[in-house]
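new request in #modeling-help
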Amino acid sequence: MAEDITIPAWKKWLQDIGDQVGFFIDFFKNIFTGGFEWSEFVRQCYEIGYRSIALVSITAFIMGLVLVVQLRPALAAYGAASTLPATLSVSFVRELGPVIIGLICAGKIASSIGAELGSMKVTEQLDAMEVSGANAIQYLVVTRILATTFMVPLLSLLGDVVGLFGGFLGVNIRDSISFHLYFVKVIASLDFSDFLPALIKTVFFGLAIGFVGCYKGFRSNKGTESVGVAANSAVVTASLWIFVIDAIAVQITSLLFYK
Amino acid sequence: MNLVKEEAKKTESTANTKEVVIEIKGLAKSFGKKEVLKDINLELDRGENVVILGRSGSGKSVTIECIVGLLKQDAGSVKVFGAEVADMTDKELKALRIKVGFLFQGGALYDSMTIRENLEFPLTRILKLDDQKEIDKRVEDCLDSVGLLDSIDKMPSDLSGGMRKRAGLARTLVVYPEIMLYDEPTTGLDPITSREISELILSLQKKNKTSSIIITHDMECARIVADRVVIMDDGRYIAEGSFDELHRSGDKIVGAYFKDIL
């Protein structure tokens, strides 16, 4: 209902933090309460994953290509142009691929979840679900958060592969390298410690994107304007979380793998 | 002979005993500094239709949202089937909500589902029915009762406002609720569709013996469906009676609602 303007900003901020923690606990409890909505989960995986393939692929391809074109003069100055495939693969698989795909997903998926649930709130569909005795958290939140947690790593893997193809094209703009030799160099430069930590952090990216989208949508106000606000703040907050998670993940990875 | 008379009296008195299904006492609710409900007292008997009239923003919807536990009151008591709603556990509240149907203003249909899926949703998720034949029968019967069987596989976006409200009503009725709460069921509809919805509410009351609270501004709807009308002003109920009794009332505020009624 109406926002209470008498509450100070710091108190509202604390209330919001508490509310987010409560929302996450609700989500977590509902994973295990039985009656998992498999059909809705599969539908969400399709909506979130399959429908993002084109966007992720195009972005990753262009990023791979552009990165090589930008890196080449710097490496060539040191006579190291031949290390382009290795430089690209390490930087793309370790860092750029996951973060860029994470940000793309934050823009596309978090906003879409926030707007969808926000409009369900405005049109009283969330209230209708609640007063009918159905478990809205299980049907709407658990399925969406688990679908993003599952699909964002897969999209990130896809982005890595497509980005390396983009790099192949980029290398061949100025130099000439065979497809076989390019990928031999790429695979030789990659290690288990490049691949696994990056994959693990994308799981957390997916969790953050789904959680933020659902939270912003569920907690939006009942005016039509709040749908836009929910979508917008979902993108901003999810993007911010991606950088925060990335910063933490880099510290943990360097402690564990790059001593 | 006396014994027969006494038995007859006893039977008559049992028949006249009213079973109160909703009992509200001293209900108060504020949002920030705004006191929306100040002292609401209301009883709903089994099989009765009560219409609540009041100006926009007077807290009519807040009252019925407190009945289903969507909002928690600041003071007072809301009892449904004798149990205090505010004290209910999540499980008890869920059980209560199966017995109390709530029709939202716009129908609140789930717009990613067809009308069939909308009606199947409470049957499979709440009543946990798994016999597809029974589910199909219930869905088709309910849609037939609101005249929407032809639209069973349509999406909510393909329906008009009146059809959406009827589909929303069918979804609420598919679990056979004992109490119905209608939040402005005819708002935004043309007079003919409004009349159809009002007659539908009345026929459902007679057919299913449901008890209903109907919030409306539509005096024609109130005239058709009401056994009793209460009028709300400044967070309180200021008048109560049958439609005709209130129509004849000399009170200025009450009269304002009925001034265009012949």
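bot summary: The mean pLDDT of chain A is 92.
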